[in-house]
Amino acid sequence: MCGIVGIVSSEPVNQQIYDSLLLLQHRGQDSTGIATLDGDFFHMVKAKGQVREAYRTRDMRSLLGNVGLGHVRYATRGSAAAEEEAQPFYVGAPYGIILVHNGNLTNTRELTADLYNVDRRHLNTHSDTELLLNVLANELQAGITGLSLDKKQVFDAVSRVHERVEGSYAAIALIAGHGLLAFRDPYGIRPLVLGKRSGANGQDEWVVASESLVLESGGYEIVRDVEPGEAILISPDGWMYSQQCAKNPRLVPCAFEYIYLARPDSVLDGISVYDARLRLGDVLAEEIAEQLEGVEIDVVMPIPDSARPSAMQVAQKLGIEYREGFFKNRYVGRTFIMPGQAVRKKSVRQKLNAMSTEFKGKNVLIVDDSIVRGTTSREIVEMARSAGAKSVIFASAAPPVVSPHVYGINMPSRAELIAHGREPSEIAEALGADHLIYLSVEGMNRAIMAGQDRVTELEQSCFTGEYIAGSVDAEYLAWVEATQES
Ligand SMILES: O=P(O)(O)OC[C@H]1O[C@H](OP(=O)(O)OP(=O)(O)O)[C@H](O)[C@@H]1O
Ligand SMILES: NC(=O)CC[C@H](N)C(=O)O
Ligand SMILES: [Mg+2]
């Protein structure tokens, strides 16, 4: 999951894109980039690290134009450290295209071979985003008949992209002279939402972004989510056109967005992330009551930040006091999306501190949103014990993560997943907890999708091992494991 934003405005967009990326920072911390379209020219600035450190005043001044896009990266293919893999990516033909992408393609080997051998295209990195851009460029090129490009040709090109590319992709592109193109994969795995406001000169101003909070904070009304398979084309003077470009679109958004990735104050595909997290807590409480009958619990405690809404509900439903015992250093980023296990492990200790008065002599139920590698939970159980807890019960508001995530979250290898091939009792032992409880898969589905009928199924392969998009089989997973840094 990266964060993406694209804006078509009646005034310069540089500051708006910057502000939007700051709001999307929780989706990626490895690198960031902004590109603008200024008449016939693109301007682009990319840098490693987080938004606040990445852009200088002179960079911002160079980003001229009323149309632009931006990206924060959390690498899922290639390397987090590679500067040349920071997004956006650019190709010179046709017209000049710049693209940002949230997601992960699963047929990269086939695409790489075809782009070299058939389309005669050069690829300069290991990024799957560069592949996506080149497929789009190739399909646009193939459909051009005259000098200019019309919307049908653009939508036909996106249809052919859907046919060639497998995996997940929410993408935004700028096409020089033509405006902004946004599209979402046929399963809508990664989020993308469309917003509109009226500019000073009466022109419609548009934004497409990974999360709705970007729209709200910029004073845009939420028009709707981009449909799975749909493409949206917005001209530089604010005309918007859309078309369904996939043969069999089916909305299957990623469950992990609701559990951990997205900000709680966003609404994705009509489901409020905060409400989903509250409901995950409600259902978790029911399952705790059933499975841990008789186990003594004095206090319920969240692991800040993402677990707070769920933990609050667990406490309320179980009628047990809610306390905060772990305090977070706000200057340390999200540890799960940091590259490399050594950094992640060190950061948990830097990030969280246990206040002993809240633990001494108590039976503590610790609630986290998820346990993936166990990096956080292992350290936390140890911290709770050293702070004097009598017993430590650990609850996860998501089911066990048993399989790699190949659609935009960097969990490439089975071996690193603490729940892979282990029973909950063995995991409890590995974590050092007295009891461990996970939300059930059925409970997760019920909680996230309650009270609405737009989303009827979730992408949940990391909990079930069943992959909906592309041919993800044992051979593919072994290849990902062998080639992707985690
Ligand atoms: O089992 P693990 O591999 O440790 O991963 C899971 C943990 O990582 C995330 O927290 P993170 O610090 O990334 O962000 P947060 O502050 O938003 O909770 C998540 O909320 C869990 O606490
Ligand atoms: N998390 C993402 O969406 C990553 C996008 C792309 N796969 C990359 O690695 O840059
Ligand atoms: Mg956390």
UniProtKB/TrEMBL annotation:
Record keywords, A-Z: Glutamine amidotransferase, Glycosyltransferase, Magnesium, Metal-binding, Purine biosynthesis, Transferase
Cofactor annotation remark: Binds 1 Mg(2+) ion per subunit.
Superkingdom in the source lineage: Bacteria
Ligand binding (Mg(2+)): S306, D368, D369
EC number: 2.4.2.14
GO MF, any single term: amidophosphoribosyltransferase activity
Example of a GO biological process term: 'de novo' IMP biosynthetic process
Keyword Glycosyltransferase: yes
InterPro entries tied to this protein: GATase_2_dom, Ntn_hydrolases_N, PRTase-like, PRTase_dom, PurF, PurF_N
Required co-factors: Mg(2+)
Catalysed reactions, as listed in the record: 5-phospho-beta-D-ribosylamine + L-glutamate + diphosphate = 5-phospho-alpha-D-ribose 1-diphosphate + L-glutamine + H2O
Residue stretches making up the Glutamine amidotransferase type-2 domain: 2-237
Pathway terms, separated by semicolons: Purine metabolism; IMP biosynthesis via de novo pathway; N(1)-(5-phospho-D-ribosyl)glycinamide from 5-phospho-alpha-D-ribose 1-diphosphate: step 1/2
Transmembrane segments: none
KW DNA-binding (keyword) present: no
UniProt-annotated catalytic positions: C2 (nucleophile)
Role: Catalyzes the formation of phosphoribosylamine from phosphoribosylpyrophosphate (PRPP) and glutamine.
Entry's family note: In the C-terminal section; belongs to the purine/pyrimidine phosphoribosyltransferase family.
Listed HAMAP family: PurF
Protein name (Swiss-Prot/TrEMBL): Amidophosphoribosyltransferase
UniProt organism field: Leucobacter ruminantium
Gene that encodes the chain: purF
